[in-house]
Structures are given as C-alpha cells and as structure tokens.
Amino acid sequence: MAFTTNWYLTVATLAAFAGMALGQLFRRVDWAITGLDALAIGLFAAIGTTKALTLGTAELPAIFLGVITAVGGGIVREVLLGLPIGIMHVGPIYAIPAAAGSAALLGLAVAGAPIAVAAAVCVIVTALIRILAVRFGWSLPEQRALQLRRRRQEGGAA
User: Fold this and answer.
1) What stretches pass through the bilayer (predicted)?
2) What is the pTM of this model?
3) What would the pLDDT profile of 6-15 be if each residue is shown by its tens digit?
4) What is the maximum span of the chain, computed from C-alpha positions, in angstroms?
C-alpha cells in the first residue's frame, strides 16, 4: 500500500539525508537534549505522583509511583532510541531528581496548593536537579558486594 506512489519513498529518503546533514548540529545542541530529557523526567514524575494521589494512594507510595513512572518513561525512551539504559549504569543521578520533585509536589499538595502549581514545581525541581547532576557529574557510588568477615576464635576449644 505504501509503495503505490513515489511520495513515501521520497519523504523517507529526504528525511534520511536531513538526518545525516544535521548530525553535527544535533551534537552541538547536546545541552538542549539534556534539558528536554530532564523536563520529560519531571513530567513523568508529576504525572505518576498526581495520578497516585488522585487515586487515594498514601503519601510515600505516591512518591514511589512518581519515581517509578519517571524512571519507566526514561527506560522506554532509551530502548526506543537504542541507547544503553541509563539507570543501569553508574552516571548522573536519575531517580533521585524524580524523588525530590515528587516530594515537592506532595508537600505542596498537602499544604493546599493547586495541583497544577504543585505539578509545575515538581517538573522544575526534577529538571533542575537532573541538569545540575549531568553538568557536575553527580552520581551515587557503584554498588558493591558486601564482604562479611568472620572473626577468628582465639585459642582452642575449652
């Protein structure tokens, strides 16, 4: 069906050439992509937390659901783009900004602020922390296995 006219093939070819031609430009605006990614994390966190609160979820689980929504949205994006899943590697913090934004949303909602204002603050807090984390390389330490040592018994059996 798609090949009944030359239009589809022409548009696909032009889009491929545009992508190749603009590749350098996209590398130069990496900061904009980081900013948009941070905003997306904030939006997902706000949506997840707001939905959880609307459905009557308790406060801490609502924050947790906001973080899960933000992280899940980021994972879907990375899978669709064929990128390594960021949360699975040591790098700039990802879930912590979402938790901070979700906590800000919850605090404002409990204080009686309109949910739209609380959601906007969530997006801003999340995006700001994420952008600063990328800019300054804030990360959590790499997970290591616990090394439990046994104490040697001194002396023999009594």
Assistant:
1) 6-26, 62-81, 93-111, 117-140
2) 0.74
3) 777 787 788 8
4) 94
**Residue 137, amino acid:** G
Q: Which amino acid type is present at position 69?
A: T
Quote the CA–CA distance of 60 and 74 in Å, as a whole number: 21
Residues 6+ apart with CB under 8 A from 121: 101, 104, 105, 108
Which residue has 């997006």 as its token pair?
123
Distances (CA, A) of 128 to 36, 89, 135, 139: 11, 21, 10, 15
What residue segments make up the domains of the chain, in order of their start? Answer: 28-136
Among 80, 61, 79, which residue's Cα sits nearest to residue 69? Answer: 61
Distances in Å between the Cα of 103 and the Cα atoms of 37, 116, 123 are 20, 15, 11
Cα separation, 13 vs 9, whole angstroms: 6
Query: Could you give the CA distance from residue 16 to residue 37 in angstroms, rounded to a whole number?
Result: 23
Q: How far apart are CA 20 and CA 7, in angstroms?
A: 20
Q: Tokens at residue 144, please?
A: 């290591």
First-to-final CA distance of the chain? 89
Cα(49)–Cα(108) distance, integer angstroms: 12
Give the tokens for residue 23: 């590749």
Residue range 99-123, pLDDT digits in tens: 999 999 999 999 999 999 999 999 9
78 contacts 118 by C-beta, under 8 angstroms: no
